[in-house]
Amino acid sequence: MTDSSNDPLVIAGVEYTSRLLVGTGKYKDMDETRQAIEASGAEIITIAIRRTNIGQNPGEENILDVLPPEKYTILPNTAGCYTAKDAVRTCMLARELLDGHQLCKLEVLGDEKTLYPDMPATMEAAEILVNDGFQVMVYMNDDPILAKRLAEMGCVAVMPLAAPIGSGLGVRNPHNIRFIVEEATVPILVDAGVGTASDAAVAMELGVDGVLMNTAIAAANRPVLMAAAMNKAVKAGREAWLAGRMPRKAYASASSPESGLID
Amino acid sequence: MLEVIVNGKSRSLQGPVSVRELVQEMALLDKRIAVEVNGEIVPASQHSTYQLSNGDSIEIVGAIGGG
Fold it and tell me: Can A105 be counted among the known catalytic residues?
């Protein structure tokens, strides 16, 4: 039986101590990014791939200088891709940029308002990438059948959303997350929509293997403090899951003995 | 003179230019980047030898913070 001291997260054959994965976008500056990642305890961090002359000051440090591949497992994402073709292209570029690193986060979006994943395009891209040797961690909706299909296809992790990206609404459909966990053959990570520490704990208590978040930390009033909270919340939720919660009851059940009461 | 498109913008290059020379011209030589020419990735090992042609569409990307 696993206890919390020997409970690694294993993705694509690599063991991680932290079950919290963090995105590096939306922070005030590189300093805050670095401090928040450190406080979170995350070992896997996501990055985006973009043209070099857009939105970058020549003098500013590059994200990979601040959070180097030697220290962190870098998870390049395909954020901003609305077609399977663009997502595949982005993963290819990321692999080249990271000297052959095969791990990638696949996300193919369907519309700008909800940033919901386009599942047909996601399935198409996943198949191409897996066949090309990528280790695909795939962002998806919470459809349990598609979760199974993506795992069967060879994705190394399946990542159902809690709620829309950046919405902070927490786990909207715990029932589907439970279905996905029950049939899982690869790690299941809740990705997107987490808002605060309790959301992360709730996700872990559903039995998922990890949680990926960005906005929940970056958009908090005090991101570094929220990162520390999330660190604890993911651990607490995991321990509660391993401990096995008490059953819910319709009526009360006294906690103190009922005999020996004074008259 | 070569007319190419780099990251969506037109650029004029003097004479035959390799990918490496373009990267150098853009002050990206020691940066972590990936280069695509006409939709195909040009691996780092080929940057010195791959010669750009008139009308080539080039994408040079790097890593930035993202979720």
Answer: yes
Using a CB-CB cut-off of 8 Å, the residues of chain A touching B22 are: none
Residue A10 CA neighbour count, 13 Å, CB half:
5
Each residue's pLDDT, cut to its tens digit, for chain A (263 residues) gives 556 679 999 999 999 999 999 999 999 999 999 999 999 999 999 999 999 874 456 667 899 999 999 999 999 999 999 999 999 999 999 999 999 999 999 999 999 999 999 999 999 999 999 999 999 999 999 999 999 999 999 999 999 999 999 999 999 999 999 999 999 999 999 999 999 999 999 999 999 999 999 999 999 999 999 999 999 999 999 999 999 999 999 999 999 998 999 98
Residue A250 C-alpha, separation from nearest chain B C-alpha, in angstroms: 41
In chain B, helix, strand, coil percent, each to 5? 15, 45, 40
Tell if the CB–CB gap between B64 and A46 is shorter than 8 Å.
no
**List of residues 6+ apart from B48 with CB closer than 8 A:** B18, B19, B20
Across the interface, whether the CB atoms of B64 and A48 are under 8 A apart is answered yes
